[in-house]
Batch of 3 targets.
Target 1
Amino acid sequence: MKPNLRISIQTLLQTGRAQREIARVIGVDPKTVRRIARESKSPGVATGICAGKAAFPVENPSPRPPAPAATPSACAIYREWIEAQLVLGRNAMSIYQDLVERHGFTHAYNSVKRFVARLKAREPERFDVLDALPGEEAQVDFGEGAPTRQTNGKYRRPYLFVMTLKYSGKSFRKVVWKADQQSWARLHEEAFWTFNGSVQYVVLDNLKQGVVRPDLYEPAINSVYAAVLAHYGAVADAARVADPNRKGTVENAIQHTQSTALKGRKFESIEEQNVWLAHWEERWAAPRIHGRKKRQVLAMFAEEKPALRALPAERFRYFRESSHTVDDSGLVQVLRSYYAAIPAAPGSIVTVRVYDHDVEIFDGAGALLRRHPRSFVPGHFEMKDSDRIFNPSRETLRLLGKAEKLGPHCLALGRDIFLRYGRAGQKALYGMTNLPRTYAKADIENAAMRVMTMSQPSYQALKRILERHAADTELQKMSPDLQQSGPHIRQIEEYHAFFERVQPRFDDQSTDNL
């Protein structure tokens, strides 16, 4: 107990106040008041002079007779066996029962109970004084603030956040209604900007806002919280489970705030309480003399400020992180919208961070896969055309681009077909753009020019023209050029003489047939 509280209790006891009334006024347990009352009345303590009364000599009581020598316990002969049972976690009753049944123990249970209690007794634990260099460490924790009126008119205690610099003892205090992971991270950021600098390490216990999975050797830190600390050049140093002494500085700061700044107060709004905490810190807490270091907190903070890490140019961009499964289309559904996660395979698990205006997708190793603008339209698909799988309904522009490479008349024919038939005409566009596999581009362009003069241009007309042109070309290759004269060709006069000789015979045969 602090000396000032002990002196106050002793003074009130001397005035004759009731012990329960003293406990209520001082704010301590009634058992503590009774213990101090017994210590004050113990023999050998000097009594002083009561106010307004003469001092009378007080006769010392007669000494008590010496205590008899302690007799050995009946359980001493079973000491090793009992110690082994205690290591197994057994209690005194189970040990007593086994002593009776297995070893023929004839004494009472209280004998075993007293012996076990002596074996379990430990010497007071000794703690080291933890110090830190300027700017090296800050300690954080949540406590309870003073009763504050809510919007429904009822009073409730908000969460009291305190960050205390280990070297100087300078603290940042703020009360909030919500104590989720993002609020926890935002309070750290606000504290850093209030101190005008950050620290190297932030010591915290294993509360769920900061530590996702407690572990003795490698605790898992909340991703948003870890990202905020990394943005400000700090690292989270989680204390061991059930080891609050590691962050005793902030524990004392919370107790000091609750017992001095907020004790017995009520506030009409949470803003009013925060204004009071800021005023109390500036007027009373910061100028005080530190209890252990015996120096002013403000003076030590002035020494520590140059050692704080410089703040970044911009504040942290907060996000919400979650895990999602990639569907068969290569998309993940986030807040009723869909975003491409390619090259992540369908069925794989990816991590999604949702910012105010962006969405980032990471693979299992933490590598950034995609960054998309955030959509606020339910059912919207955010996917580039290059990410889409082949789909004929989205091939029009590509096919027209291929037709344009064949020539302007081919492009005009493709547009005419699509305008008249719509998506159904894309099959004809596929056929036209595949003609260069068989025919020359110049022939295709010339044929398209002839087709465009028709009243109903079509792919079939284009193909027929190309087929006829190809057939004529092939026939010319197979048939040699005709000649009027040559070494193997008779003269035309010989053919005339031959027909003059043969013609009368044909005429006579025709007359006979009649």
Target 2
Amino acid sequence: MSLRRVPAVLVVALLIASCTTQQPQPAPTASPMSTASPTPDPKALEKFGTQKLAWGACASFKDKAFDCAKLIVPLDYLKPDGETISIGVLRHKTKNTGRRIGSLVLNPGGPGGSGVSAAARIAMSRPAAALAERFDIVGFDPRGVGTSEPKLVCLTDAERDADRAEDSESDSTPAGIAKQLTDAKAYAAKCAERTKHGTELLANIGTRDVVRDLDVLRSALGDEKLTYLGFSYGTQIGTAYAEAYPDKVRALLLDGAVDPELDTAESLVTQMAGFQNTFAEFGKWCVARPDCALGRDAGAVTKAFQDLVQPLIADPVPAGNRELSFEDAITGTSAALYSQDAWKFLNDGFAELKRGSGKTLVALADNYYGREPDGRYTGILDVYFAVRCVDSARIADRRVIDDAHQRMLQGAPFLTGGTPDMSELDICSVWPVPATSEVHKPDVDGLPRPLIISTTDDPATPYASGVNLARDLKGALLTFEGAQHTVFLDGNECVDGAGLAYLIDGGLPAPDTRCS
């Protein structure tokens, strides 16, 4: 999954308290896809777009600056008179009604990230003050997520804890690979059995249907055209919306873009190389410090890291009242690479591991998996797999899967022995419903020029992905020189100034603009 990265203040709180925040750390994303087929009947759907949202107090946010509502949408857009589901929506209404432009709808990424939580956080942030004066800032929880109903359910909290502790993905023997496939089948079956509407929801949970929900939301909000802000996987939603409804777009700002033409296997291979690149940047930063837990040789940090974590395969170490497994060490490390703000704490975690404790690395892994301090999981990983498995064509050839796994590890040697996304291809190969979209090159006419922001050393969505998306959508590219995942509204005056000018007035930065 790929989400807007956790702000520095939350990272600090996470590690000081050795617990998680509400916003999980990111991971790799899916590619944009076609939403052209099949096509619902517009007239039969008019009743959803004209619904009046019943705004009221938010259950999870007591601040009276927010109000919440439920958007009713068809479970299956080809059956508009059939079952319906609800989409959770949060709004921060602008007080400056005389200068109000409309609604700014946002998505933080995932798949599986909560737009409700993201909108509440962003609306109250200092960099977004100018947006809050001109827009109602709106976030929605996509199908199966957070406040939307029904919620996707695959594993219980205890089952997720047990799965993380098992380290099955580090076993590359034929027996180990066979067990991974068996586990993938069992996992997919649980998703269908434990979720209301079962396979029907799974068949209609992908980006194709999220985009349709987004257009219903636009209409219900009373906006003739959509102003949209998407981070990471949210750029996929924005791209698919632009393809489906180009004449209904006012402005489209996409930060941390995915490559629109890579299938699941190729996107994972590319992203793992991005993680290795950012790990190397972390290594350079680390060895310049006198307290670097991986030594003082930048060329040897991968080996030092492997020497430190490989013993966990056989011997997990204590982490409070839990244990740090090898897979959790890999996951926690990968999660911390999304933000330089977390690098100090990652180094502290490695030093802690040398002393025989895994508390900090477990906290980072918890953040990635959406595990809350009380042991409950948000379910973000389940939604991630469910969406990914219907957003591109299934890869069932074992040789292709094994080759992709091998190339992933060749491109990211620091992950040797396991990675948080190695199981994705296995799970999607046995998913109980077919794909509803396919990877392709976007072909959009009549779209106002979007703004694409891409970061040079982004671990999850490599810089070239933003370059490619800007080219395909005929948009403007803004380059940020740094090592992190997404940057808009993070306090960089150059990036924020350009983004605010675009969203408010439609002005685009000059060609080849770079911020650092």
Target 3
Amino acid sequence: MPNRLATQNSPYLRQHADNPVDWYPWGAEALKLAREADKPILLSIGYSACHWCHVMAHESFEDPEVAAEMNRHYVNIKVDREERPDLDHIYQTAHAMLTQRSGGWPLTLFLMPDGTPFFGGTYFPKRARHGMAGFLDLLPRVAAAYRDKRGEIAQQNAALLEALSRTLPAPAGAQELKRSPLDAAVREFAQVFDDVHGGIGQAPKFPHPFELAFCLRRHALDGGELGLSITRLTLARMAEGGIYDQLGGGFCRYSVDPYWSIPHFEKMLYDNAALIALYSDAWLVTHQPLFENTVRGIASWVMREMQSPAGGYYSSLDADSEHEEGKYYVWTREEVKGLLSAEEYAVVEPHYGLDGAPNFEGATAEGGERAPHIGDATPERDAGVSNTRSPASSSRADPPSGVPRPTLRGAHWHLRVMKPLEVIARRLDSPVAECEARLASARAKLLAARERRVRPGRDDKVLTSWNAMMVRGLARAARVFGEEAWLVSARRALEFIRATLWRDGRLYATSKDGVAHLNAYLDDHAFLLDALLELMQCEFREDDLRFARDLSELLLEQFEDPAAGGFFFVSHDHEKLIHRAKPGHDNATPAGNGIAAFALQRLGHLIGEPRYLAAAERALRLFYAPLERQPSGFVSLATALDENLSPPQTVIVRGEAGVLVEWQRALATRYRPDTLVIAIPAGQTGLPPVLDKAAPARGVNAWICRGVTCLPPSNDLTDLERTLSAGRDLE
């Protein structure tokens, strides 16, 4: 008989509805039961696309013996970390304090009835192995500690709550905001940059799109080559690697090896949202065809596989198919050869490394499982590579160590670029264009064959924050490449948010099958405001501006700390938890405080609203001390700091609609990260004074402004471009 999770909206919670575990969702009922029954809480936090969450579910939560122990000793609560990032943030932080180790998912914590954790870990196997405690042995021992060691636990809990309170930034003094963290951040990235294979940090390698975007921004604004070198090499190696789906487009979450070859195969909406914007900007700087192709691949994947009929974007694709990670994506040589013509295979075999050793093959591991083997082969380049310097460790949470990942038996390849087409064309004595055509035909055949396989699961809930990121990313790409279909897709997602997740002046965090619930978090409001600013640069709509103002007011009313400054992660009327976080450090997504400060500043300058500028500066002053100590961990706040010290310039273009589009398109061909372009058709009324410029009777006029200070209007596009390139100071 299904448990209480069967009625939940979250696909991840529903995955556990048939477990023999007596699961509860997080809520008043479970917490009250723990208090009244004087039982500890077993809290398990995960998400739908998480491979190790599935492993622990199959080993333990589906096992009647384990379930009986869980039900006997605990009130068991399952949480989808994507629906409840507030809980995940608190308990990941508490786990790190309790264990002195990085966290991850599944997160397994044992709580007192008041919600304070006293013991925990991440993945536990059913039986002890590879130096890890067995879950079945652990359950009665932790329950006994709860009964017998209340005094010690109480002392530990008091210390833990005190430590959590100290994670809040101290109220700011009157220190001067300086630009030194901007330069220091790029230097810190350079120290951990892998200058052979690209990437910030060592394996497991994460894309770090916001850090790379910061490096590209610094190159554009300061002229240094270091930021460009870090970004260009990393993006090229990632796009050629196995972390990128060479057939279907889109990026997986991270690579387990230094070469970007073998990923954990889950595909997350937020990663691809950030990367499509970053690759678009990198293309503007470099004009590398690889970067444009990558943007088109991400856009194709998102619109084909991740957009719901109602318009919202789904959350993720699973790592597993048929209970095996990567099975959907990998190939045998015989499979590929049988699907392609001889001419196509002659290109595909060397291009994707099928003429070398398998890269998804391993020796039999304990229990008959097979672990993937990552070969020593690296992609062939025109120039040899001899530097093997090891970069410093990643800041992201590692997967469980010492445990074999199940995978396919026999020799398999996960496709990644091993030899450039130019090298192959020389070997085959064929034009590069002919090799490109053969590769395109082969990829289409392989993708069609792959789509007949059992597909990975898809988490089809719609998250406001991640949708906002993809709206921004697709809108940015549409503006760069002039692709109307991408803008239409982004608009559909925004319309879904407004119709489903925005009700009676309140934003909600998540929706499944059209049912919205859970009060939205800081990230939802801040990321959506940022997305609206990008959409308004694609096409100005008064409704978007009004929505942006509504969100800004909510940020100030519901999230800002009026005493110390900065923004709490949850609203003032959120349920009371053991800690109320005010995050400033960037993680897999940027810090809500950084994006809130950045977007509020931009909107404040755009419409001349000093309250937004003041709130942004209060946040920057609150976080300036940690930003100064570790700038590479706070790049979203560093970007906001940059625009506090040197306000962005706004190009306001007004005139005839047809000519307006031509000017917009021309202005989008240059990467100017400190510039907003707002094109408003003649006849538009009800504008704020800063934007309310007189449109000419014919043609177009354009004003370059910083805040309320503007240069005289220009009606010549060449002259306008010359002025923008000269960087004339308006202050």
